[in-house]
Amino acid sequence: MDNNPEIDIMTGLRDNRGLLNTIIETEPACVKLLSADCRLLMMNRAGLDMIEADSFGQVKGLSVLGLILPEHRQAFIDVGETVFKGGEAELEFEIVGLKGRRVWLETHAVPLRDDTGGITALLGITRDVTERKRVEDALRKSEARLAEAEIIAGFGSWEWMVADDSVYWSEGMCKLFGISPVEFGGAYMSFIDFVHPVDRDRVMCLVSEAVQGDEPLSYEARIVRKDGEERMIYVYGHTTRDDEGRPVRMLGTVQDVTKRRELEQERELLQEVMRHDMKTPLAVITGNAEILLMEGGKSMDRESAAALESIIRNAGHLGRMLDDQVTLFNIESGRAPGNKEQVDVEELLMEASMSLSGLARGKGLSYDSELPAGLPSVYADRSHLLRAVANLGQNAVNYTPAGGKVRLAARLVGEGSERRILILVTDDGPGIPAAEQSKVFEKYYRNATAKSVSGSGLGLAIVKAVAEENGGWVELESGPGKGCVFTLVLPVADGTA
Q: Is CATH 3.30.200.20 what the domain over 146-256 is classified as, yes or no?
């Protein structure tokens, strides 16, 4: 009769108990035998280490139920009953070792049968899953914190599997749309149904472009919640693709920006009030004061004339403050008129120089300029750029004491696409300490020296906004007692010589 290799191997294993014991003892998982009443009949070294036993003799016949935490004991008893009825079972449970260490275990239990098929013991293979449980617990807590943060911040996250059109919404998403997780349809059109009818076609077009193209999804749109309330949301998403470039899924977030938009609208309304409703009466006040002053002539007493001059002066100051507010708002919000063009820097600086020269000499300051001919053009809003240079000049005049000097200069630096025009305004003022230099471009910031100078506190903020609006930046070089050098840096327009 032919030899059967498998029968030979099994026979060899039965005959060589030493080899079998060696295999069991070196197995990194716990191997144990339990009686029907959950008492230990056998346990290998790995299992003894898990329950913190020094030897098997220490725990032989011990009921393992005493090691298992109370909340898991009944489940473990149920596993034993299943196995002794001929079934198999798995269970995760937590124990406290003989020396007090808590361990999470995962066991797979099967019946051990004798030669007649009778069940003699429960054979369990058990692994330490404490680290996995720790990671899972940390992940659950992290997900819970994220869900809470989403709800507090008014945003949610989503995932769209493009191929099968399955969509996942986080708890924050569902709350934002006013539904429970079970009410969400789980498909792309389930989201589209919430989009305001006026915005729906635009949103679907933007989503299609993001799925087919390379740019991320980014838009604002209105939604109508389940309760009928309209909200404004901002959506951002990114598409991932397979090796052949086909869209696989899109991940993204949705943020409720309703309050922000309401505040922006209120701010715009305030700007309109400042631009029209406040400037009109200011113009009337200034005009009437000028008429009274002119008609009074020499017959008006000195005190009345001084009062009218003060009215005209302060009304003009308030008007300039309102102009500054409106200008800065328009630039920062992107609502400034689109008047960018090729700007002749040489011509603009000559205009600024004439104005600055008059301001400086009117305060008893000397003035100097260095404006080279042939400067290339920049692509910018000319009125904003002139305003920025004028603000730097006014700032220099304001802080330079009588007898001091103000200077306007320009130069071209760099090569090729890195060419820049530098516009420098220098003063002989008290200078600015290093610790304060990063703050001077903030809105309304005024240091101890600035408090003695009238102004809106927006002049340098406007300079910074104009620089950034035109792809440049502004620098400051100063120190106590060293005056200031403000440098407005602007990129040269493409195609200019």
A: no
